[in-house]
Amino acid sequence: MANYTAADIKALREKTGAGMLDVKKALDEADGDQTKAAEILRVKGLKGVTKREGRTTSNGLVAANAGDGVGTLVEILCETDFVAKGEKFIDLADQVLAQAVASKATNAEDLLTSTTQDGKTVQDLLDDANATIGEKIEIKRVARLEGETVASYLHKTSPDLPAQIGVLVAVEGGDEQVGRDIAMHVAAFSPTVLSREDVPAETVENERRLAEATAKEEGKPEAALPKIVEGRVGGYFKENVLLEQAFAKDPKKTVGKVADEAGAKITGFARFRVGQ
């Protein structure tokens, strides 16, 4: 007769997240020993991790933390939206974010190899989650931003899912509201750089070349080409450069103008969207 009770089954399921049948088999094999049964489940689960390595992770969430002039952003991916909105995955994300803050990690590699207070690496946490949840889970990106003030903003693209977009904005001067307003703008308009000086020279040259080729294809007069090209390159800046974008709350002003009027200077930003 099995040396365990229904309460033992319930406790082990809550501890490991494994299915009822798997828990019963593990307890049978361990003769009712909870610790040994948990180890059996972990070993069996980890065997499946390598099988999942080639799977696509296109769902997940973005988590953020900001305070005392430092902000941290983490993108954690899984395979399905069902897992992404589950309590176990969200709890895992909270642990990963806390460790990212504690370790001051600036990239996924450093975060994965960092060690928690329990003596486990973050990679160990992910391996355990892979084993119990049954999906490939990975940390895609990590950002750490410092400034006089760092504002964070998380946006849900669906009410049924956790945040899919996360933003950090570092500012000098101004107040807390201007930082948050700009962070919300970044979430909506996805700029790629802070200022036009941050755009690579080869990118600008390529935009100029394409603008000229397009204008010629359209039959524009040769004399008008320089002005047309510069106008279209300027349009590229207005679309991609944060300081030159039309502000979400007042499109008649640029983000840079809004910051100036608030007595603030934007010194940096980071934006993650799940799977992009």
From TrEMBL:
Belongs to the EF-Ts family. The keyword Cytoplasm applies. PANTHER family: ELONGATION FACTOR TS, ELONGATION FACTOR TS, MITOCHONDRIAL. Keywords: Cytoplasm, Elongation factor, Protein biosynthesis. GO terms for cellular component: cytoplasm. It comes from the Bacteria. Residues 71-276 form the Translation elongation factor EFTs/EF1B dimerisation domain. This is Elongation factor Ts. Coiled coil: none annotated. The keyword NAD does not apply.
